[in-house]
Design brief:
Oligomer: single chain
Order of helices and strands: EHEHEHEEHHEEHHHEEEHHHHHHHHH
Structural class: alpha+beta
Number of helices: 17
Helix content: 55-70%
Strand content: 5-15%
Distance between the termini: 54 Å
Radius of gyration: 28 Å
């Protein structure tokens, strides 16, 4: 089954492109492509804006964003990518630049297509030529259904409910059948990665129609509520890393990863020979210069081991390592969310087993008011637990607690393994930063014209 939706992008175009081509979601970028533009988020946004500058009457829409979601069992990632490209080519007729990415990090494989709102053939907008009456979603759905049928993929034959199209988000959640905690964690995780600081996070999370109450003076500092959710959920009850201090730390961490700045003070072994004590003693200066040469030689050997022979290669290797670190951090956060989800299921099933005998006795009593009064709390807890379990397991087939415990243990082992990878990458980054700072300090002590070949 394929589900589609389209909406305009009015701000943060580069960030939107950066999100859809995320290597973690696209098998390290293998499931991405572009048409008449760069795959680099910043450059592709500039490519879009260059074409836009030739048009007139452009309005405030910078680009259009298409979602196309499949039942995870029906298509392979490669098939989904091919179908998405066919959809883009048929809808856009080769007139608009676009970026396409197939995401495989969720249960349902889905495509993202971001295309320029201005055509590079006549500089007219998609809104003007293709979306009059705001009915482009109908054409998109029909084309998607047509292509899916050609590929033997099922489609939604009755997409309208009470005269209103069901949005992509609703279809996706119906297909996934996850609990509200899982949905809430997912939205918070995405918003943390998109935010520049904590205040920006509060603004963005509320813009996504998530009620967020932040009261720093209280013990419970932050709580959230999704549309349709009866009660607020405290950050710490969703998971320890969803409490206010941890959210702040995670935002800061992502900002450092994005900029490639660690924030650490690097203390090198290079001796500053410009100090008076060395300038006033030739013997001491000679000793210091020899020590510096030894350290510089060691650092150059380090660079050679990593096959780095120029400043560009150095920066490229450092950038690759920073990207690896960011990817691992995102995976660690994802694993922690899965661990929390499984633990929620275990805890909820245990509650169900605890209160079910009481509810069974209540049913046997024929709904006795006296019995209900005496066991009101247990009966209410049972009914609430049943609601939660129905949301998590709509087929009403509960897994064994032992199975869930095993699944949780396996996830924890995966997290341990990934954490070791994270430590390795962090240590490698420290070596890069140390080498960079040390060599820069070394060059300050020597004739730059004689030594610039080392890193240039």
């Amino acid at each position: 089954m394929a589900v589609t939706n389209i909406h305009p992008i009015r701000t943060t175009l580069a960030k939107a492109i950066e999100y859809i081509i995320n290597p973690e979601k696209t098998e390290n970028g293998l499931l991405t492509g572009s048409y008449v533009c760069s795959l680099n988020p910043q450059k592709s946004a500039e490519n879009f804006l260059d074409i836009r500058s030739f048009g007139s009457g452009k309005g405030d829409v910078l680009a259009q964003h298409i979602y196309q979601s499949f039942d995870g069992q029906e298509v392979t990632p490669e098939q989904a990518m091919k179908i998405g490209q066919e959809l883009a080519d048929k809808l856009l007729k080769g007139k608009y630049q676009y970026i396409i990415a197939t995401h495989v990090d969720k249960k349902n494989i889905h495509n993202h297509i971001i295309f320029n709102n201005v055509s590079f053939t006549d500089y007219k907008t998609f809104e003007y030529t293709e979306n009059r009456g705001k009915n482009s979603w109908k054409k998109l759905r029909n084309l998607s259904d047509e292509i899916c049928r050609e590929h033997g993929i099922s489609v939604i034959e009755n997409p309208n409910i009470n005269g209103r199209k069901k949005c992509y988000y609703e279809w996706q959640q119906d297909l996934m059948g996850n609990s509200w905690k899982s949905k809430l964690r997912r939205v918070i995780d995405e918003t943390i990665m998109e935010s520049n600081n904590f205040d920006d996070f509060l603004e963005k999370i509320r813009a996504k129609k998530i009620e967020c109450v932040y009261t720093p003076q209280n013990v419970i500092k932050i709580k959230f509520r999704m549309p349709g959710q009866e009660k607020f959920a405290r950050g710490r009850t969703i998971g320890w890393h969803y409490d206010e201090p941890q959210i702040r730390k995670r935002i800061e961490q992502y900002q450092r990863l994005k900029t490639g700045v660690s924030g650490r003070d690097i203390h090198t072994k290079i001796i500053d020979t410009s100090k008076a004590v060395f300038q006033n003693s030739k013997g001491l200066l000679n000793w210091a210069e020899i020590q510096n040469m030894k350290e510089a030689s060691r650092l150059i050997n380090f660079l050679s081991t990593h096959q780095i022979q120029s400043q560009n290669e150095f920066e490229n290797q450092a950038a690759i390592t920073y990207n690896e670190r960011m990817s691992v951090v995102a995976k660690l956060n994802g694993l922690q969310s899965k661990i929390d989800d499984v633990f929620d299921c275990i805890r909820t099933i245990r509650k169900y087993k605890k209160y079910k005998p009481v509810y069974d006795e209540y049913r046997k009593s024929g709904g006795s008011p006296k019995y209900k009064k005496e066991h009101a709390s247990a009966i209410e807890n049972y009914e609430n637990v049943v609601k939660e379990l129905t949301e998590i397991y709509p087929n009403k087939k509960l897994p064994k607690i032992e199975t869930l415990e095993q699944q949780r243990a396996e996830l924890i082992e995966q997290r341990k393994t990934l954490n070791e990878e994270y430590k390795r990458i962090v240590n490698e980054l420290k070596e890069f930063e140390f080498a960079r700072e040390s060599l820069e300090q070394y060059f300050k002590n020597n004739d730059r014209s004689r030594n610039k070949g080392l890193l240039e």
